[in-house]
Amino acid sequence: MDQKAYSKQVKNRNFASNIFLTFNAILGTFPSLVVVYMVGKIMDGTIKKELIIQGAIVITASLALKAFFYGLSIWKVHEGAYNSLSEIRLDLIKQLKKMSLGFFQKRKTGDLANIVNHDVEQVEVYLAHGLPEIMTSTLIPVAVFIIISIVDWRLGIALVCTAPLMILFRKIMNKIWGKSMAKYAESTKIMSEDLLEYIATIPVIKAFAREENKTKKVLDHMSEYITWVKKVMLSISVPMGLISMMLEGGLVVMVIVGSILLSNGAVSTQGFVLALILGGVFLSAFAKLATFQHYQIVFGQSIESIYSVIGEKPLPRGNKYPNPKAGDIVFDKVDFSYTPEKKVLHDINLCFREKSVNAIVGASGCGKSTLANLIMGFWQPDSGRLSIGEQDLNDMSEDALSSLVSIVQQEVFLFNLSIEENIRIGKPHATKAEIIEAAKKAQIHDMIMSLPNGYETLAGEGGTKFSGGEKQRISIARMILKNAPIIILDEATAAIDPSNEKLIQQAISNLGKDKTLIMIAHHLNTITGADQIVVMDEGHVVASGRHTELLSSCGMYAEMVEKQSQVDSWQIKDEEILV
Predict the structure, then answer these.
(1) Does residue 331 surpass a pLDDT of 90?
(2) Which of 26, 157, 328, 474 is the most buried (most CB within 10 A)?
(3) What is the Cα–Cα distance from 24 to 65, expressed in whole angstroms?
């Protein structure tokens, strides 16, 4: 489905309300018709009491029905709009869940948050308020044109004679409006991104006090946003004034033509009066249409932003192995790049044996975490083959691969739920006993029980109530509960204090029993007992083997171990400071 089809699908959700609005518009012309008809009878001297009563009944009934259909349309249009709002947000969430990490590298958090919140809200505003008004303001002029044309076709032609000029002018202006709204949308996105980042980094900003310039940047972007709002409103309001003037020109032409026809006896007085009354209704409706024009433009921009996510194709995955089995993890001539300009992994040939302990070492940016991300299925190789138990990862569904692999990362996120619910993410239907057992193995049970509410304690937004080491152990409890046969540790102890590191090492030992363990580590003293250590440099595998083998065969690894030894023995010495 392309963007145009998607936009049409969203609009069609208001089909029922559009029908009610049509009846509302048609019934709105009845009182004018009845009044002009009765005026004609008065002028002819043929008016009767019964006719007045009948006219009053018709006017009352038409107004009552008009109100009834208007109420129905408002009810249905809001029901459809809010259903659409919910469906679009659910579609966005489902789509985001399917996307690879590469997508989130291209799109900022503020940009996506702006789409889910602001742009979806704009769609609701358009469907609930803009579209009904636009529909009404379009239907009434059509109905008026038909009625006036029935009175006399020349009056109808005269009324709309300036319409082609107006349509041409609007087509020209639509391009200008589109560019202005694009700038407005861009400034809105930038402002949202800056505000989210600003709120998230307030402690850092306050730490720099006078020296920081982030606040000024945010205020500048807010000022730019306000400027574009003013420019957009100006670019719409002035042309709309010209369009209204063109339409009024059509009414002037109709008055001139009608006067000539009336003087020649070609049209009746009541017919001419009816045309004048309905001509005013025609202009009033078009004036409202001009007022609500910006709704259409904003809707178009919002749909474009939403479709930039909905229309994105997720990584293609098969479902050849719905119940995959664990086994050796094999990289066969794998190349990978995040961007076409720079390759990150070069001709990787590796094998991580089932139920073995493995470590990947190397300088920052050498490709360690990229290897882990490929195993997790976050990205796919540009070339070569990656398999688990001789089953190609590309032929596994996301759920199937997830059942095989778990990852414990350096940065752990906890949801603002109870600790019990945070651990239960590893196994949604786990019992309380299973959760407690997992927490004990993760060396976090005692800490949880020391809290006033125990396992019912809320973690706080992002897990702010707990230290890094405590969050790590809660994360490990999740993984123990999940019980996947392959565990990846992405620098899980890199920023942990010694006391927490000891507990985490014990938790990792419990987590990795009888499993394939792949550790990405900077602390080389924690991996000396690994079955295989993979040394990487600038996307290449330099060497692999056991610790003792690499010390004698790989100069790069020996140098890394030496530097680690120097760091471990380094101490700060007290020196006399001369003042």
Answers:
(1) yes
(2) 474
(3) 8
Contacts of 30 (CB under 8 A, 6+ apart): 58, 59, 62
Sequence-ordered alpha helix ranges (H) in 341-386? 368-376
Which residue, 408, 573, 404, 553, is CA-closest to 483? 404
- Based on its alpha-carbon atoms, the radius of gyration of the chain, rounded to whole angstroms, reads 35
Query: What range defines the domain where residue 257 resides?
Result: 3-310
Percent of the chain clearing pLDDT 90 (strictly above):
8
Task: Report the amino acid identity of residue 384.
Answer: G
Residue entry with tokens 């109530």: 465
- Which residues, other chains included, contact 254 with Cβ-Cβ below 8 Å and sequence gap of 6+? 148, 155, 158, 159, 275, 279
The answer on 462 and 538 residing in a single domain is: yes
User: How far apart are alpha carbons 223 and 316 in whole angstroms?
Assistant: 43
The candidate with the shortest Cα–Cα distance to 531, out of 555, 547, 554, is 547
What does the buried/exposed string (b/e) look like for 87-117 if buried means 16 or more CB atoms within 10 Å of the residue's CB?
ebbeebeebbeebeeebeeebbebbbebbbe
Domain count, the chain: 2
Strand duo 532-537 + 329-336: pairing: unpaired
Same domain, 286 and 368: no
For the chain, report the end-to-end CA distance as a whole number of angstroms. 74
Query: Which pair of tokens denotes residue 247?
Result: 């339409």
pTM over 0.85: no
